[in-house]
Amino acid sequence: MTDEHLGGPTVVSAGVSKTISDTTLLAPTDLRAESGTCVVVRGRNGIGKTTLLRILAGTLEPTTGTASIDGVRLDERDAATRRRVAALLGAPTAYRDLTLADHLTLIDATWGRDVAGCAQRVADGLDALGIGDLAHRFPHELSSGQSQLFRLAMVFFRPGDLLVLDEPEQRLDTTKRALVGDLLIHRRQAGDTLLVACHDPVLTERIADVVLDLPEP
Amino acid sequence: MNDRERLEDVEHVLHGDKGSGAAKNMGYAVYVTVLLASTYGFTVARAVFATSGPAWIDDHVLTLPTAVIGVGLFVASLALARWAGRTRGPVVPPLPWTDLVASSDVDRARSLRRWWTYAFVGGLVGGAILGAVIGGGVWASGAGSAGWFVGAVPIGAAAGWLLARMWLEGQVAPDTSGTATLARVVRPAAGSLRQLRLDDLRSHGVRSTQMGGGVLAGDLRAVRLEVASPVTRGRRLRLQAAGPRAVVVRRDILGLRRAPGAFWTGAVLVVIGWAGVAWALTDPRVPVALTCLAVAACYLGMGAWAEGLRLLGDNAGTPPMLGLRFRTEAIAHLVVPVALFLMTTVGVSAIGLMAMNNVGVDGAGLSSAGPNGAVPILAVLGWCLLIGTLLAGAQLMAAFRGAPPVMAFLPEYGPPMMIYWYARPLVLASVSGGLIVSHATAGAAASTAAGSGMVTGMLIALVTAIGAMAWGLRSVKTLEEAHRI
Q1: Is residue A119 predicted with pLDDT exceeding 90?
Q2: Do B240 and A105 touch (CB under 8 A)?
Q3: CB within 8 Å: B247 and A105
Q4: Comparing B78 with B449, which gets the higher pLDDT?
Q5: Contact flag A136-B235 (C-beta cutoff 8 Å)
Q6: Is the ipTM reported for this complex over the cut 0.90?
Q7: Which pTM value belongs to this model?
Q8: How many A×B Cβ pairs under 8 Å?
Q9: How far does Cα B312 stand from its chain's mean position?
């Protein structure tokens, strides 16, 4: 828990739900994540955690209700939203012909960071997740746990002060879960806002300021 | 009990007294193919050769360059068959058969013979039918003698047999060199079948199932990943940081450096395709169908260079990692394929014009006289740009085609709808491109005012190219927003 609120956004969802035909993917849900805090979303499989996170990342239109970031409607088509929201919702598709280091270089360049410091930032970004020694492997040469660390490295590497993560602990061993917990705490202490769906009680205990248990529809 | 009796017993357990019906099914497939080939293939071939005439065939088909190109294409087909065999060979029995029957001590050549027979008969009969369609078309149109038909059938059958054998050898010995593989095809196929390993049969079976599932579900990414070899080369190459758009371009260049096969495949297809387009631009007697095929080759060639674009299409709907608008990134991914296309086509055009040995200088620049009169170099460059833009639009349509329409999953309309959905960008590009080029050349030949027919054709091409790009960009926007529903 921290009281440092250094500039991450406040995220509010009011009565957001998602229904397709007569199937309810997410019952109406209220959530408020203050700047610089971490909200962990919990619930049984199929309750709508990923759907809620997709709405809060601005990639999915809710059927009812509204979701906003600092009072502005969440919509990833808006460049301002994209600048703020770094999300891991499922496995992002990697380029099969780029190494891990190349991926981070590509991300770095597209956000307009200075070219001179790129190599160092890439090395630091991979080292932070403990996969610096895999920098020159291709994505298909990774184990499932290493792949998850690589995805997290990409999300942590890109800019954004709202992290939306769907079960970041997936496929990770105990040591790596602790490492990811450290990184999330560090980001929260730096002022970023975190929305995390998580099934790991130890990680939840470490990072959560608020726990939201999704209700049955 | 010998192997034959044991396998008959197995068939009886699996299928009862009726048997598997494999021979009946194969016979029916051959019957349908013969019917379609004689109804449509023969009719079209006869029409093509009738409109071309014997003189055109003498001047353009029965020539040394055409023979060299034909042999080259056949050798490339053999290499392709061998490559296909490494990924998905002709012998792919159902997985339970592999695990429960092929794993027994029954002679493996005998237990796997049925699936090889499918490929063998398919190659032999398919080749013979193709030969009959072409040879029969020449003969029936009056463009050649009955010798064409008599000769083409056995040649086609032999070519089909050789392709099927290369396909099998690609599966049996994937690491053998191309020349050594060619030497193996003269051996009896039974020996090759005995060398197939259970693990390989199983992996081919699983891959085949996944590819089939991907095709039926319209999941092109899944199909591509099953077919493509994993990239492992160029590990020491680095993506150099640059501006946001430039780094996307560099990414695509790096991708091609690490997948030189894709680069060379694209280069060969574009060179062959553009040679055909350039030929059609200088000779109004070139059949429209041939021009369409040439544009289709260009489309496929540019597609081989557009892996980055397709990967972006695969990524649509996932939270963005890159700091570029989706549309901007899509356009940036077009830079490399379009630039390579322009460089290749301009180069091919220049070589072609020089080879025509009648280069001169006029007010508009260098010009080359074809049968329909002068074709200014600037016009050739313009055609490179126009067809390149048309194909770029088609690449966007293909990469961002999204999910198949619901009708593709209905039993009544499914297969043709799915085929239409897959083929639409290719068909649109090749048919419209082929028709426009042929129309422009014919217009130029018929026009009394110098160049007016060609200019009209280029204006039509310009409108079509702009329309294709607009459609392509619309596809980008549609797919970008599709996941929001």
Answers
A1: yes
A2: yes
A3: yes
A4: B78
A5: yes
A6: no
A7: 0.77
A8: 115
A9: 22
Output b/e per residue, B265-300; b: 16+ Cβ within 10 A.
Answer: bbbbbbbbbbbbbbbbbbbbbbbbbbbbbbbbbbbb
Please check whether residues B345 and B289 belong to one and the same domain. yes
The total number of structural domains that make up chain A: 1
Chain B residues within an 8 Å CB radius of A109: 241-244, 246-247
* A1 lies in some domain: no
Q: Which two tokens stand for residue B116?
A: 């090889």
The residue-averaged pLDDT of A85-111 equals 88
CA distances A135 to A92, A110, A124, A153, B460, Å, are 18, 19, 11, 11, 50
Give me the mean pLDDT over the B381-390 stretch: 94
Answer whether B323 sits within 8 Å of A138, measured CB to CB.
no
Query: Do the chains contact at B323 and A83, CB–CB below 8 Å?
Result: yes
Residue A6 inside a domain? The answer is no
- In this model, does residue B129 exceed pLDDT 90? yes
Host domain of residue B123: 20-222
Q: Could you tell me what percent of chain A has a pLDDT over 70? A: 97
The domain tally of chain B equals 2
Residue where the block lists tokens 């009209």? B456
Q: What is the C-alpha to C-alpha distance for residues B232 and B230, in angstroms, rounded to an integer?
A: 6
CB contact, 8 Å: A22 with chain B? Answer: no
Over residues B281-301, the pLDDT tens digits come to 888 888 888 899 999 999 999
Position A4 confidence tier, pLDDT thresholds 50, 70, 90: very low
